[in-house]
Write a structure and sequence with these properties.
This protein is mainly α. It is built from 4 helices and no strands. It starts with 18 loop residues before the first helix and ends with a helix.
């Protein structure tokens, strides 16, 4: 578990054995599972891909606004679904990075990973695509 020693004053934060691995396998995994399978997200994706119509039973011949509204909302839902996909990808990368950091920290008996080295390791999560 992370040590609560740091009070925001630039103190030292200690991470005990396997904390990063456990955190990535439990907290982040639970968050990602919730994002992937929650009912609101499933409904949003269904609207975005058109498998569930947003507005049904309208007479678009007499009233064209419902079709325009449905189309606009479908576009919006699609963009939100894509953003959620990006978030999931970044968190999956973070999970791998935390597990690697945990492995390296646990295997480094007399070597330590300083802040700069850890930030370099986490860089691909913090700056994806760079």
């Amino acid at each position: 578990m992370a040590d609560d020693e740091d009070k925001g004053d630039g103190g030292t934060v200690k991470v005990t054995d396997n904390f990063l691995k456990t955190f990535s396998e439990t907290a982040i995994k639970k968050f990602l599972d919730d994002v992937k399978v929650s009912l609101p997200v499933r409904e949003l994706r269904a609207y975005a891909d058109g498998s569930t119509p947003l507005l049904t039973g309208n007479n678009s011949g007499n009233f064209t606004a419902p079709g325009t509204l449905a189309s606009t909302l479908k576009t919006y839902d699609d963009s939100v679904a894509k953003m959620l996909g990006t978030i999931v990808s970044q968190f999956e990368t973070l999970t791998i990075d935390l597990q690697l950091a945990d492995r390296w920290l646990n295997n480094a008996l007399d070597e330590s990973l300083d802040y700069a080295q850890f930030m370099k390791l986490a860089g691909r999560t913090l700056n994806p695509g760079k």
